[in-house]
Amino acid sequence: MEGWFATDADAISLQCWDQEVLLPGGHGLMVRGYRPVINTLAKGLDIRLGHRYAYLCFSSKCYEHGSTFRLLVLIQALLLRVVEIVRHWNRVEVTVSNGKTFVADAAVITVPLGVLKSNTIKFEPRLPEWKEEAIRELSVGVENKIVLHFSEVFWPNVEFLGVVSSTTYGCSYFLNLHKATGHAVLVYMPAGRLACDIEKMSDEAAAQFAFSQLKKILPNAAEPLNYLVSHWGSDENTLGSYTFDGVGKPRDLYEKLRIPVDNLFFAGEATSVQYTGTVHGAFSTGEMAAEECRMRVLEKFRELDMLEMCHPMAEQTATVSVPLLISRL
């Protein structure tokens, strides 16, 4: 439960913990990660990297009015930071830390909930109270990954190896990547306070701690060759892993976070009522925000048939093939 919700058991809502809708089908693992999906979806888009929140900028033209509608989609990236978002009745201005300002008719904001909660982005004018309440009251958890690479496999051919403890604090598990990838790799997955405490360690110390947990299960475990450690809770670009149902928190907070404010549209896993904390939740709310933004364009220009997306792929009807490799565990 703690791994599923990325928090401690005493923080999970007993009333709402089982409200998430599970998709049908077996459990699978993206062997090559999400890069093939991202690269395919990004084809033909004007993407501005080198910012803490990247910009996907594209235009739609309304022939009758001879004007172009420009949209900014703010997602997570690196380096510069978005410091201010100013909304006007007819445009949005997004300023980054080097002083540069991007101007568009609308913006879709998909930055992580942890970043929104940190108030590092100034909204001018301030967001409505109900929106600020949703940001403030929603709960974001931390679950990290400590990847251990070994010279050979010495563990059983199972999907998970659980770490049993006398307290919930010490409970965690290992994900067996050998079963899916063929590589001798185990991933230690601590959550909640344990994950936050491990983030205070050096990467070497964190890997040693993970290995000590493995030796509790398999005393004859061999030393790992190398390791990789995530820091989702303290990384300033995330400040958490994903959202969970907190004790005493109403379910309508997710919808309040999703509802647009003028020409600002919101998407991401924290805005999904049914699929909170998931990639498909983030993707589906992104599609919803895009459709709401499209309808705003149509309403603005009062033209239902003359809107043309200025996108290199717009006139192509063939389905794009995504080079995915999915392992059924």
Automatic annotation (TrEMBL):
What is any one of the record's Gene Ontology cellular component terms? peroxisome
Top-level division of the source organism's lineage: Eukaryota
Q: Which UniProt keywords apply?
A: Oxidoreductase
Q: Does the keyword Ribosomal protein apply?
A: no
Pfam families xrefs: Amino_oxidase
Q: Which InterPro entries match?
A: Amino_oxidase, FAD/NAD-bd_sf, Flavin_monoamine_oxidase
State one molecular function term (GO): spermine oxidase activity
Q: Which GO terms describe its biological process?
A: spermine catabolic process; thermospermine catabolic process
Q: Does the keyword GTP-binding apply?
A: no
Please state every residue range assigned to the domain named Amine oxidase: 81-293
Family membership noted in the UniProt record: Belongs to the flavin monoamine oxidase family.
Q: What is this protein called?
A: Amine oxidase domain-containing protein
Upper classification of the source organism reads:
Eukaryota, Viridiplantae, Streptophyta, Embryophyta, Tracheophyta
